[in-house]
Amino acid sequence: MLQEFQRRLSVERLLEPGASVIIAFSGGPDSSCLLHLLTLSGCDVTAAHLVHGLREEAEREAELCRAFALKHGARFEKGCADVRAIAEQDGIGLEEAGRKARYSFFAAVHKKIGAPVATAHTLDDHVETILMNLARGSGARGLSGIPMRRDYVIRPLLWVRRSETQEYCREHGLLILSDPANEDLQFARNRVRKFVIPGFEQIRFGAAEAAARSARILSEEDALLDALAEDALAACMRRRGGALDFVCDGLYLELRVEPLKAAPTALLRRVVRIAARRFDVDLDWTLTDIVTTAIQSGDKASVAVEGAPVRVLVGERTLRVVRDEATVDYEVEVEAGGSVPLPRLGGRLGAGVLPGEMLPDGSRLTAWLDADSIVGALVVRAARSEDELVPVGDTRRRRAFELLENAGLPLKARRRCPIVCDDEGPVWVPECATASRVQVTPATKRTLRLRLEPDSTDGTV
Predict the structure, then answer these.
(1) How far apart are the C-alpha atoms of 351 and 336, rounded to whole Å?
(2) pTM (2 decimals)?
(3) Which CATH code, of 3.30.465, 1.10.287, 1.10.720, 2.60.220, is assigned to 237-323?
């Protein structure tokens, strides 16, 4: 098994030789097998073990897991959770609460160590997931089962049967802990494991492997459909064409309906769901079907996503996805020679002082100010309805909201658009105006250059 394991690590590009990796370690045969294979492959392994707080023997088992990990050259990280309390608090079952607690713990260990997290899911887990999703009426994504990689989580044993990991542990004298919860038939997965999989394999020899093969095909086709839907979404998106489009991201999205009406239904559903995912929500089948049917029939529709402040609105000409969030006011001091993050927007504002008069470079997200005309501290904050300034080339005071509205920003975006102010008020409304009182002139001795960088991690100028 070791040789094939190492081959697949390389072919699937899961881990480089000698790489650091965190293993989700329960002490069961699957995770013990994985830990052993990873250490034999020269990886720098950390075993992450979570005590769920459901069984008295859990602490003793945690010590057995620690001893096993250290014996095989792995470090050990232990966490504790009250899974029953999580289930009650979130109104979910123990099985889902346990999974939520585990992945929260793994995320914390990942953040601490910075290595990928390897789970010991096997081909059996993969097929169980496929069949459970089939029972729910899932589409291609659900029927693709468990992905080999998602974000920082990898699953190097998806090709191995559970019986093989058990045999491997017996052959090598490895730790095998058993969790009574795996035999509890109140959990749907255990019923699938005990009754459905055996019956499934009686239909045809190798049915589980065949199902995994079908899942891989579906996964590849699912990725293709997603790519086509992304292209269709981009082609239908209505943009202002201005430099401040990024302010609308995750807050407001508008698509032209007419091109979508001619799209195949499967592609249209993808576009609708991908548009919603831009707002970190997943539309279920019912909501997706309501929106899709309304677009195809030319009707109006409005759906709200349960548990999220997001609505999808279908009109005669547009499909809009809107986040109904409270206005978030923020204020961050800006210092020359550095950069500061733009809260809720994902970019940064950089500031730098240059000698003498500098001419603007034409960028709508760059401002050039007379550094010695700045009054007090300089801050970047969300625009407010009372903000006013006299723009360069104008003689009257103008409201920042009016300037941003003229630039095409909807009200929700105007309320979080970053502007730069000193103690006397706004000095720069990006894309729209610079205050005349800080205008660069031939008499300027020091020029302050401000630059908004929405897609950069370092805005230093």
Answers:
(1) 5
(2) 0.74
(3) 3.30.465
